[in-house]
Batch of 2 targets.
Target 1
Amino acid sequence: MLDIKVEMTKTPKELPSADNPLKFGTIFTDHMFIMNYEEGKGWINPRVVPYQPISLEPSAMVFHYGQEMFEGLKAYKTEDGRTLLFRPNKNAERTNRTNRRICIPEIPIEDFVQAVKTVVKIDEAWIPTKPGTSLYIRPFIIATDPFLGVRPSHSYMFMIILSPVGPYYPEGLNPVKIWIEDEYVRAVKGGIGEAKTGGNYVASLRSQVKAHDEGYSQVMWLDGVDRKYIEEVGAMNIFFKINGTLITPLLTGSILPGVTRDSVIQVCKEWGLAVEERRISIDEIYEAYQNGTLEEVFGTGTAAVISPVGGLRWGDQIMQVQDGGIGPVSQKLYDTLTGIQLGRIEDTHNWTVEV
Amino acid sequence: MLDIKVEMTKTPKELPSADNPLKFGTIFTDHMFIMNYEEGKGWINPRVVPYQPISLEPSAMVFHYGQEMFEGLKAYKTEDGRTLLFRPNKNAERTNRTNRRICIPEIPIEDFVQAVKTVVKIDEAWIPTKPGTSLYIRPFIIATDPFLGVRPSHSYMFMIILSPVGPYYPEGLNPVKIWIEDEYVRAVKGGIGEAKTGGNYVASLRSQVKAHDEGYSQVMWLDGVDRKYIEEVGAMNIFFKINGTLITPLLTGSILPGVTRDSVIQVCKEWGLAVEERRISIDEIYEAYQNGTLEEVFGTGTAAVISPVGGLRWGDQIMQVQDGGIGPVSQKLYDTLTGIQLGRIEDTHNWTVEV
Ligand SMILES: Cc1ncc(COP(=O)(O)O)c(C=O)c1O
Ligand SMILES: Cc1ncc(COP(=O)(O)O)c(C=O)c1O
């Protein structure tokens, strides 16, 4: 158990009004959690303080060598006023998996969850309640040694900030159009692709700009070796329903092991759907599209939960899926997962954790 | 021409004494350069201010999505008291190459060089003069938008900090032992390997820790596709002299185009040495080692200029080079390049730039 000191703000901000669209990731609550790491002392000084800028030496290693990691999860307000988190232990576990890969000291799972709960409780009034809204929780760690030279830092800051968010896609559950990237690569086996660290996201920017310019909202990545196996989409894992079977890329080290991905696999198996985790090539997708067996495509991720995919563009080929609409499995998964998250559907897996 | 405002420190620090060993990257001078970027305004407000911490929102994009880049070059004091930079235009050009890859707005070459010259001039007294010492110059750019979500930032800070440094290897020009990594990958074609951005360095940490634990000071990377072609070493490019010919990996997008690498190629060609830029596999190196034609191996980089390699470890194989000593080409290159940098040898290429 962490002994978390709390310093409440003396100047609380005004809560966003109920009809504020809450553009994703732009508004932050009154408080944040901070804990420091110092070599020889471990993780120390856990505290909740007013949301405020942080001051770092210009030589702080995070600015130079990218030793940083983040997580993302959400808190939801139920109709009867409870606050629920969705599988926060999974984010804590993934934090440590990321940390091991990039040489950041691990954080005990229960301390991570306690820190999340504590700061969410304090800013509970910020959790929005309109359909599709939630409180986005961003834990992150940065390397703070004032040192130029490539080695793991000896000091870190672990912080949690909170942001009330509207639906990820302002239009609601709407099919997205996806650009299949065949020039740039996001990550490769043996690299840092399965870690949730800045280096994977910066690698994606240029493709994303290109895709946006062409009218596509997301980029789908192919593997860096054979340049033909599907990896994942910007900030989502990806599923294909082909001829009745759900197929999603295997976790081979270059893609993020998504919490939503894991939940979708479990739920679909319980529904009796065939689910395969395996390598799947873009040629196989294209073939299924051509012979009419590509039934549904959807992305999974904390931000949008389920994102139906209405179209894919691969070079000169444009594949329309579900006539550009929402498929039945996508819709049912969205309703089920958000139902569990909002406490409307019985949580048979014990996935939700009350704050 | 930038109109650079200067605010001098009122509390100058004590200069390091002449027998301070100047551990690399730990001491910083009295001033730093800052310039901001704002969308619609471009790069604005260039200034030199006292060296001080910077204050950022916890949501600043650099902490989350790794949109950051850096450069590294050095200023040297000549025996007749002049201050020389070595090919600063190359660092300015590489900055923009990095920036294009990771969607940071470019900086005009002449502005970059002017900024470097200005801040170096102001802290000229900090340039150490003992053999092997210099003033390390670290320009870097960070994304500052307070925003959670993956897209290029709309605001940035470009900064230059300065650090007086001793020889990179405290023991002087001493052969290093190199660990050839066959499990992890640093970068892959199509990725960000040729950009000087944090994501490449964080990817290297785990291997580096492993190598250190085994008594090796540096890691040599193999390519991410075939896992057998030589890429580069930690913070150096790499050269092999096999049977009289110098061979260095071709720039194929996954390795940094080093300024020292480029200088070495030019100088060696002028000396009449055969130089090949091409793919070279670890098997070819091993074969050359076995048949006695692996004559020299050395790394090239700003920090150590030339690093003779005395030994390589590849799985269970240990290859000793030059009986673990310094080869004649390595020594001659070191003497020549540092000679030019220190103004002792005629600079026929116009590589040095006086501050
Ligand atoms: C690269 C990437 N892949 C997949 C996901 C989906 O993971 P999760 O379902 O845990 O949100 C995310 C977002 O978190 C991501 O950033
Ligand atoms: C990854 C990497 N490769 C090579 C180099 C050598 O480049 P340069 O000679 O420009 O210093 C560096 C250092 O700058 C580096 O970080």
Note: The radius of gyration of chain A is 21 Å.
Target 2
Amino acid sequence: MLDDLPLLDAHCHAVTTADLDADGFARWCTEASTPAPPGVSYLDGPAGLAVRRWCAPALDLPAHAPAPDYLARRAELGAPSATRRLLRAANLGELLVDTGLPGDLTGPALAAAAGARYAEVVRLETVAERVLAAGVPAADFAPAFADALTAAAREAAAVKSILAYRHGLDIDPERPSRREVTAAAGTWLRAGARRLTDPVLLRHLLWTAVDLGRPIQLHTGFGDRDLALPRSDPSLLQRWYAMIEPTRVPIVLLHCYPYHRQAGWLAHVYPNVYIDVGLTLTHTGPRAAAILAEYFELAPFAKILYSSDAYGLAELYLVGAAQFRWALSTLLNDWWLSRADAERLARAVAADNARRVYRR
Amino acid sequence: MLDDLPLLDAHCHAVTTADLDADGFARWCTEASTPAPPGVSYLDGPAGLAVRRWCAPALDLPAHAPAPDYLARRAELGAPSATRRLLRAANLGELLVDTGLPGDLTGPALAAAAGARYAEVVRLETVAERVLAAGVPAADFAPAFADALTAAAREAAAVKSILAYRHGLDIDPERPSRREVTAAAGTWLRAGARRLTDPVLLRHLLWTAVDLGRPIQLHTGFGDRDLALPRSDPSLLQRWYAMIEPTRVPIVLLHCYPYHRQAGWLAHVYPNVYIDVGLTLTHTGPRAAAILAEYFELAPFAKILYSSDAYGLAELYLVGAAQFRWALSTLLNDWWLSRADAERLARAVAADNARRVYRR
Amino acid sequence: MLDDLPLLDAHCHAVTTADLDADGFARWCTEASTPAPPGVSYLDGPAGLAVRRWCAPALDLPAHAPAPDYLARRAELGAPSATRRLLRAANLGELLVDTGLPGDLTGPALAAAAGARYAEVVRLETVAERVLAAGVPAADFAPAFADALTAAAREAAAVKSILAYRHGLDIDPERPSRREVTAAAGTWLRAGARRLTDPVLLRHLLWTAVDLGRPIQLHTGFGDRDLALPRSDPSLLQRWYAMIEPTRVPIVLLHCYPYHRQAGWLAHVYPNVYIDVGLTLTHTGPRAAAILAEYFELAPFAKILYSSDAYGLAELYLVGAAQFRWALSTLLNDWWLSRADAERLARAVAADNARRVYRR
């Protein structure tokens, strides 16, 4: 049943259509940002296994074909053709694309290649850095950012915060005053900094996003090494979820692992908090079914969302989708559920919950 | 074998016998304290599944009957009659009831309805707030609280602390001096506060409980949103467990999830620390068997206790008991154990450990 | 296949060959350091089950023989003979022995008894305490420690840090200046302290080990109660792994539980970080297979190492090895993997990864 159900991939990124050698391909399959040491291959791990299992058949190879055979076949087809096959095999109904990361194929063209509908996710920090780089006076930063965000997000399904990368979620959640924002913007502008890391400005971005009213996707849990893992635990922002609850703006906690149990509790007790399994299932190979089940321990079923968080390789769109379908089928088979309950739960998590939250 | 074994439910609360509509019923099935947003139902999650699986047969419906059918049948029987059926179906040998929360049916009457023996659990903060509200001078608070606790706990099996709700477990564990307690009581009385949150007074309560010598139940891990989850990790109080070890007063860590692995280690290395699976199994539906097994990773088997932490609905008494029996059976079937070992382990966790710890 | 594969046990300790009564035996089977309370036995838990399952057959008893039968048979054989049988049954190819803990049988003689090759692991804190106890002037501590470590580690496969026990991993990871080291050594010497706990000196030890260039084993996660569990999370040292990455010195995170998912991410994103399953599998009995799988969620397969962390009882060498073989077989059966992939993965984790990291 899940195979025929188009997924709403609620958080994903651009793909590259360049030809890739083995090293280049492997680097896209990991959150590591530096070369592997001698004797270690980034393909010889959970994500590599998942690519070989799920993607080889889409390129006419048997599942588990060795990596060199897979790469040879990919090159034979050409990256653009392989990309199209892989995206189509994922059976996606709609993509919400975070356009804050570069790539050859993104936005509506990426969705078209996947045969899916499209909406944008706007990254708060990217908009703010653009406003600051344009030379706004410090005193005008707050209204200029609000205007820029409103314009950027006019058609967007959601906005996204990478506070976990820029500071950590252990931040004072109070709304900063206009005076504080101006002072922080002044300091930042005088320092000539590019990458926005000031905590006052970062929480101003979040509060401005709340004013905008779109769902806010929040990076939580693992990612690349630019974040401090203990400071990415989504329960560190508990006070903020409570503060903004009256606005009814949905907060979607992305990834969450290894703090996904904490995230499930947040979704249980805060009406405005949702959780998203993206990135986690892609990188955990044969463990994805066991891990997905842990997202379902406390969260109401209408609070759990699918995304792939795919970036760079079209393979990661298919891996995300196939891992999710396999993991959710495993869960539904293992659980005591009536058939009617199982079907409703599958439809909810595959797309219905996202449609409701993102108003698609 | 487990079905026939009466459980000692070592931590539970009053139930309501009022007739409930669907919303009212759903609100009792969650730790959320505010209404669910549109599209979300608190019954459509792990706890709701568990109620439908385990409780429907006790009301003559097939397992997994839809929620509206269940509620209709419950209304048809009348809440008092349904309550009695559900409590009896749980097969409980004894209840230790925390009488600090209100309800229609509590104390000995609740135990009688369940066909079980009874003992009380006395909430430290409730006693202290009563003493303070009665207008005790600050300088007399320490002896007045000690007297009031001794009186309140004369027949009690245990006392209970909700430090996690009132401050967090990240507290200085040293015993405060009499002078410090008097000063803190004075400040508190002058502020006219009702809800005791002063950390000096809270730890004075704990140390007074140690003097009393009864087992101390400690809320740890998840609960409702009034607590800060990262500050409910029971390993934050490690120094205190060591300090009080010479007194041999048992400390029972309630709930623990998602820090139950940390709790298991505490039970492993501190002779005076025990762990209790209450609340967790009730709220995690089909995941309860997998989670229960995690409590058994490091703790000596004689250190693991059962409770339901049921509150409000008689259903939660039955869900707690049924989930525990199902989860423990699953564990005993999955593990490599001799039959004799399995039976001993089941009897220990179902009641024998609690009988020893609480001297029942 | 795994039964025939000799393991490289990359972190282990001395064993006792004294005759042991039931209490003495039980005390070696736990990380608890004080007697169990009435009604609790340290053998009646996961580790005790594992000893009875895996070790009884090596002494000609059926698996799961009751503990008294096991101890009687052990006494009948005599501890030295039982020790030899147990070590041989573990099928070990090489032992890397941390010689910083005392025992009757250690070093080359221990390896010979196991029929295994041998190399040493040198404990940093032990070397430093020896240098300080020898009366070095504070200003000479840094060069004297460097010389002593170089001499002690001439033939060693690795060095080891117990920073988690002496301070916690929440330490400033910057290299201290020579002036700071001298001042800290002076303070330490004037205080006449024996057990090195000064954070400046502790991180100086780590940085001196980096200069030496041998792999560094780092205690992380659980152990006995001398450590503060929340401060043993290996992700607390993230900045240090990044700082020393250019040196290419391997850091092996030992144990890790219950932070092994955090550790797997560290191994995923830092080329110089590895994870080791020692101690965890020994103490978690029938849960070891489920837990081992969690180490494989994010780490590249070439980054995962075996050790037993056995200490005291030869039983723990066999339990560690048998639990690992059983748990890894379970994983390989449960996963979707080609047979060729499964065999390669088994060889890698059983010994090949350790051979490469420790240059054996």
Note: The longest strand of chain A covers residues 92-98.
